[in-house]
Amino acid sequence: MKLMWTDAEDIALALMESHPETDPLQVRFTDLRDWVMDLPDFADDPAKSNEGILEAIQMAWYEEWQDAQ
After folding, report:
1. The model's pTM
2. The domain made up of 8-68 is a member of CATH 1.10.10.600
């Protein structure tokens, strides 16, 4: 499955796997954007990201991260 910017939940799960010890709230949006684009299944246009999308991804990741603590 190819990941798109709007797939916040799926991206969050992938980020949990690739950065399991990272507190999502400590990640800058510039780094988060890079990490998302580095995911092997990510296939969307980098220009389509924006602060709202990155915040949705970060919050979905944070919820998953909290559940795992």
Report:
1. 0.94
2. yes
